[in-house]
Amino acid sequence: MELHILEHRLRVASIPKDGLPQFTHSLIKLIFLPTKTRCKFISLTETPEDYTIIVDEEGFREFPESDHLSVADAVWLALNVVSGGGSSSSSQPIGVTKIAKSVIAPLADHNISVFMLSTYQTDFILVRLENYLCITT
Questions:
Q1: Contact 53/85 with Cβ under 8 angstroms?
Q2: Top-confidence residue, 23 or 110
Q3: pLDDT for res 90
Q4: What one-character-per-residue DSSP string does 42-83 give?
């Protein structure tokens, strides 16, 4: 298993269900018209309470200022979890248990909080930018 630090600086935000119409244009542009933006990383998750968006700083600039957008103070780095030393697109699933034991537990031992994001093809561990030196040494 390898960890690759992605170059993207990520923001985490929340939009309440009733606030979504204000952001529809921005979301369509980011998700369905990638050639119209410089955004390289976006994740949109719907929960019963809200929509959580994880987006790089280029994509974040697409959103209008609004009271309906709650943004976490931290800027995050994404660690891409890759198995077998190959590229992330050809990696085999590792499993949350192995990731927790090998990566998350040592970070927790150093009081570094993480935010986990899993997709069909890969897993990401998000760490605060302020912890960058701690995770690279």
A1: no
A2: 23
A3: 47
A4: EEEEE-SSEEEEEEEHHHHTTSPP-TT-EE-S--EEEEEEES
**Beta pairing partners, 42:** 55
Question: Could you give the percent of the chain with pLDDT greater than 70?
Answer: 83
The per-residue pLDDT of the chain, averaged, comes to 84
Residues shown for the chain: 137
Could you give the 3-state DSSP secondary structure of residue 75?
coil
| H or E, element range at 117 | strand 114-118
Give the separation between CA 132 and CA 103, rounded to whole angstroms: 14
The 8-class DSSP code of residue 137 comes to -
Query: Distance between CA atoms of 35 and 15, rounded to whole angstroms?
Result: 24
Q: Which of 47, 10, 38, 28 is nearest to 124 (CA)?
A: 10
Q: What pLDDT score was predicted for residue 25?
A: 94
Q: Give the helix ranges, DSSP H, for 33-94.
A: 57-60
- 22 CA to centre of own chain: 22
Least confident of 5-9, 12-16, 85-89, 125-129: 85-89
Q: Which residue type sits at 7? A: E
